[in-house]
Write a structure and sequence with these properties.
The chain has helices at about 25-35, 50-65, 75-80, 95-100, 115-125, 150-160, 175-180, 190, 195-205, and strands spanning about 10-15, 35-40, 70, 85-90, 105-115, 130, 165, 185. The protein has 9 helices and 8 strands. It has a single domain (about 10-210), classed as Alpha-Beta Barrel (TIM Barrel), CATH 3.20.20.70. The chain is globular and about 40 Å long. Helices cover about 40% and strands about 20% of the residues. The protein has an 8-stranded parallel β-barrel, surrounded by 8 helices. With about 210 residues, it is of the alpha/beta class.
């Protein structure tokens, strides 16, 4: 099976509680200018109509920059907004149902926490990438199960899809996860919780420079 390849780099995840005075679109624009290679739209508070309006705008913005927009958890929103794909957790829609709704070209990512068997099953079922973590204490998900960098090394040997690392990752601790096998580093507060979003994104992007 041919899997969609995400470009290695910063995987920036929005949080409607962050970004200060900026709209979500303005914050995402800054993250992209700073070098983000993937944007995930994650909003647990706004209503359906507001989320769809924002998702449609972000899909257009990301498309204009050649950057995939991934929708967190909501397959229907991904379909309606024209996003590139969806990211699914343990309690979300089944992978096969998401693929049926979004089609073969959609990017579907799966949260695998610290579970390599879950990742292997996801890839066998057609996932385009898998995400592991948390690797460090996380303000966004303080109760998430911890994962060790060695998990990335084992996954790298077994799985032929991009690996996303998430959880408390900063420009200072991210290099070790890349060395262990991660292809992308996901960040929420480390990007959108900073006073200069573009500069924060650039610090992550620098980790991927040769």
């Amino acid at each position: 099976m041919t899997h969609t390849r995400l470009q290695p780099g910063l995987y920036a995840i929005t949080d409607n509680r962050l970004g200060g005075e900026f709209t979500v679109e303005a914050a995402v624009e800054q993250a992209i200018r700073g070098g983000a290679r993937v944007i995930q739209y994650r909003d647990k508070q706004a209503g359906r109509k507001a989320r769809e309006t924002t998702a449609r705008r972000l899909a257009g913005l990301c498309r204009s920059h050649g950057i995939p927009l991934i929708i967190n958890d909501d397959v229907g929103l991904a379909a309606r907004s024209g996003a590139a794909g969806v990211h699914l957790g343990r309690a979300d829609s089944p992978l096969l149902e998401a693929r049926r709704q979004l089609g073969p070209a959609a990017i579907i990512g799966i949260s695998c926490y610290n579970n390599l068997d879950r990742a292997r099953a996801a890839v066998a079922g057609g996932a385009d990438y898998v995400a592991f973590g948390r690797f460090f204490p996380s303000g966004s998900k303080p109760d998430a199960v911890p994962a060790a960098p060695a998990l990335l090394s084992r996954a790298r040997d077994l799985l032929d899809v991009p690996l996303v690392a998430i959880g408390g990752i900063t420009p200072d601790n991210g290099a070790a996860l890349l060395e262990a096998g991660a292809d992308l580093l996901a960040a929420i507060e480390g990007v959108f919780g900073q006073p200069d979003i573009e500069a924060a994104a650039r610090r992550y992007a620098a980790l991927f420079e040769p």
